[in-house]
Amino acid sequence: MAFERTLIILKPDAVARRLVGRVISRFEDKGLSLVGMKLMKISPALAQRHYAEHKGKPFYPALLKFITSGPVVVMAVEGNGAVAVCRKMLGATFGFNAEPGTIRGDFGVSSGFNLVHGSDSVKSAKRELALYFKKAELLTCAKEELKWIYDWADGTAR
User: Fold this and answer.
1) What is the pLDDT along the chain (158 residues), one digit of tens a residue?
2) Domains of the chain, with CATH numbers?
3) Which residues contact 43 (CB under 8 A, 6 or more apart)?
4) Of 117, 125, 132, 133, which one is the catalytic site residue?
5) Is 117 tagged catalytic?
6) Could you give phi then psi for residue 29, rounded to 5 degrees?
């Protein structure tokens, strides 16, 4: 079983719209584990490091302004194939293109305010998690309940 960790950020629009609990519930309902979480305001310097690959693109200044405009909730989410599972749950980048049933599809219609960020690869997740969490801030999830999520009734993964 390929357990992974990924970074999820509930952006300022999700926090301002009081969607935090509803979005977190979706990850928990799916069977993913929250192994780190904090409410914070992203500094301009941290935003520049996080979005470094977008520097020079036309949307970069607006992206930095948006992500630093208010409080966010950053989460480390763990589970089998967590990166791909979370990306699928988020939906298409722009809410008006996102399928119903996804977070963006159910809560968003904007092209600029897209509610959530999710790491796009295992490599990105490792880099991004290190930006927001010290190693000691990330917990190990209790594995006992996982037998009910991943069909480990006899102690082996299927």
Assistant:
1) 568 999 999 999 999 999 999 999 999 999 999 999 999 999 999 999 999 999 999 999 999 999 999 999 999 999 999 999 999 999 999 999 999 999 999 999 888 889 999 999 999 999 999 999 999 999 986 666 777 777 766 656 55
2) 3-135 (3.30.70.141)
3) 68
4) 117
5) yes
6) -60, -35
